């Protein structure tokens, strides 16, 4: 874990090295000051020699100035190193997440990833800054102060050894008992963030069903769970301060008693005793800082493990060694494909899929919820890998292609349409970064999006709120289709992406596809028969198997499931999952 985290220091190694160096120099200067004070008292004030008072006083000012300078530089470099470390951690996690396949993403909740990139990284940032400064300062201060104490009087300094042993045992016990609790605390953070994210993203539904009180109770429960875990952890950490106070006052009493005896016996001077007391406080403050480090490290270890889980997660899908860099055509072949979301375990979602689609064909895909429609098309762009068999695009196995090349050639409009905050043009240019405004207008005409865009006061410069909150479902779908068309793909996949538009607009879009992109292979997943009956061929899926594959007329004659759907929808307006009901384009 430590090795993985330290790799993220990268360009901040220099400042990470300079920080402890200047911290050590700062401590050395601080430790020298009490030693000089002893000379001021013994050789200056007690001896009545003002010259020595001025000499040692000037020396002490120089040392104090150097200590201040070294401390300021250490603070500056520590801030730069810890902030840079946190920045690299966030970038490292984010970059790795971008490489994740869908199966990798399924392992982490969205709320969990957000917590890791915010709360957990902040904990590590604070811990790293503390390690660079206090974890260096405290041991150096402790060692230097102890060395000076033994130099002054070895017998009295033995008090410190007993104090350190007692404190070490106490701190180790506290750390071990709280570490497990903090592991649970950060999992509770995930639950809390999940509650907030779900509520905010679905606030319209919450209000429509008057479920505010229910959501408040759910959030309150998550917050209370987090509260109880923190109280439990902090209650055990609270023993840290009483233990420190016990050690400090015991040392003070022991040194006062021994110091008085040594002064009476003439083996210790007043100046040396004063220095001893100063060093006592330095030693005890070092111990206090070390206890703080233990507390911070205890918390950060839990955060570190969670961050490393993301950093070390290996993408299930990677580029081959010598990838193919061009998709020559839109031919698609499924060769005895089986697929399961959990490879090696669980039931197959798709079974014995054997399909062969020619470039430029329009293929309709229809079936019940959960039958594997979305899973099937996800294999084409290699969002998932097959469990058995192979998928070919353009005459080559998809596992032979460079991932970016393949996915650039396969445009997908998903069930859950996503728009990003920015103008309409910004969103469209996700399909082609350097697209001109005229190219954007053309694909919007093909997707029948131009008719509503031109009604907006700002037209194509209209601002889209996060998630497309200020446009309707149908408008969002058409913008997403236009964005996909801008890629000029070899294969275009519409995963139930016209469910929110009326049938007339749906027909216009399909007509535009036939006229404008005849060479593109088009796969249209739909619940409405009307959306697919004009396709070259139609695929009927049922429980992960191919139940039928042919033209509309052929399936009406030979496929009972397709015929039943057609009759119920033409007679009563239902869809695959709701015969006789209103068509609504269900999601898988």
Low-confidence stretches: 573-588
Sheet with most strands: strand arrangement: 6-9-10-3-11-12
Estimate the global geometry from the Cα principal axes. Answer: elongated
Averaging pLDDT over every residue, what do you get?
82
Largest sheet: 6 strands, mixed
Describe, in plain words, how this protein is organized in 3D.
The structure is a single chain. The chain has 588 residues and is of the alpha/beta class. Helix content is 62%, strand content 10%. It has 20 helices and twelve strands. The protein has helices at 2-6, 13-45, 50-99, 102-105, 110-152, 154-201, 203-208, 212-237, 240-265, 270-311, 373-378, 403-409, 424-428, 437-446, 450-453, 473-485, 503-516, 529-532, 552-558, 560-572, and strands at residues 332-339, 350-357, 362-367, 388-393, 396-397, 410-413, 422-423, 463-464, 491-495, 521-525, 537-542, 545-550. The strands form three sheets. Strands 6-9-10-3-11-12 form a six-stranded mixed beta sheet. The protein has a four-stranded antiparallel beta sheet with strand order 2-1-4-5, with no helix packed on it. A hairpin with a 2-residue loop joins strand 4 and strand 5. Helix 2 (13-45) packs parallel to helix 5 (110-152), helix 5 packs antiparallel against helix 6 (154-201) and helix 5 (110-152) runs antiparallel to helix 10 (270-311). It starts with a helix and ends in a 16-residue tail after the last helix. Mean pLDDT is 82; it is low at 573-588.
Characteristic key phrases:
single chain, 588 residues, alpha/beta, six-stranded mixed sheet, 20 helices, 12 strands
